[in-house]
């Protein structure tokens, strides 16, 4: 008998998947898809707060159906600021042995949804208890790059991206890693006045800038996807978005470097304004173990997401960098695009169709 060998790659990856990935990732996809569909009904209606509200409510209802003991580590804000999915809220049925930390943004890009602009998503990550950074709702200055840069750094230990280095230094390393000229690189930056100098430096170094009005989370993920046309993300944005980016980028083998920064500092406000913000936020920061002394510490991928059994799911609401928008059908159905992944390395691009009334809205290609 002739024995034909074959690769057991899929079997091996499934075997090494942790319990969170095995049991919760299929359900996590449904969680982000339900939030995205809820938000899609508010697309273009001009009310960003209500769009966010329905996404939050839908996501929370779905989370509370999962057999787990979950704690929100990155969420909608502090308990006195957010009625649902606030930092520290416990979610899930409480049944079973799975204890998870959760990072969530039910609607990344509320303005984009309200105005019908591209790039809004419903996104979530989970890891084992202690596996996700418990950080404050302030800014993080960051650099995000893909796995080619990580591999280059391993081969050239004296050449590494550096949050404190000149922009040109980091661009040269990324260009070498990708075997490109600096002039061919595309760097995504949030279009904010605080980034004016950084944008100028990127352009003076020869690279190209893609400005986004909101939402640099998915561009960060895109740095780890060849063919996305995005090679680097730079600049200060929400700390929650940075942690969610870190979850995906860790699974995909990329890298993020980040540092917490107070909004008043990032936006170049007066010292009086900065002092007022310190007085307001410092008590909460200290409860999380963050002091003025360690506020400026560099946080890398593993500090932001130290967990091993990490899962991530993002569903597009409006057209994205590599995901299609929600398409709503008559009769309450919808078609949605999701990217999901787990620490085993399995990545899925899911095209889901939900049909509420099969007679009124038959399936079609």
Description:
By secondary structure, the protein is of the alpha+beta class. The protein has two domains: 9-131 and 308-354, Fructose-1,6-Bisphosphatase, Chain A, domain 1; 139-304, 3-Layer(aba) Sandwich (D-Maltodextrin-Binding Protein, domain 2), CATH 3.40.190.90. 35% of the residues lie in helices and 23% in strands. The protein is built from twelve helices and 14 strands. The protein has helices spanning 9-16, 19-40, 48-63, 110-115, 147-155, 167-178, 196-204, 217-222, 239-252, 263-266, 271-287, 301-304, and strands at residues 69-74, 90-91, 99-108, 121-128, 139-145, 186-190, 208-212, 232-238, 255-261, 299-300, 311-316, 327-328, 334-342, 347-354. The strands form two sheets. Strands 1, 2, 3, 4, 11, 12, 13 and 14 form an eight-stranded mixed β-sheet that branches. Strands 7-6-8-5-9-10 form a six-stranded mixed β-sheet, with helices on both faces. The N and C termini lie far apart (43 Å). The mean pLDDT is 93.
User: What's the CATH superfamily of the largest domain, by name?
Assistant: Fructose-1,6-Bisphosphatase, subunit A, domain 1
The largest sheet is: 8 strands, mixed
Strand content: 15-25%
**Tertiary shape:** globular
CATH structural architecture of the largest domain: 2-Layer Sandwich
Radius of gyration: 21 Å
Provide the low-confidence segments as ranges.
none
Q: How many H/I helices?
A: 12
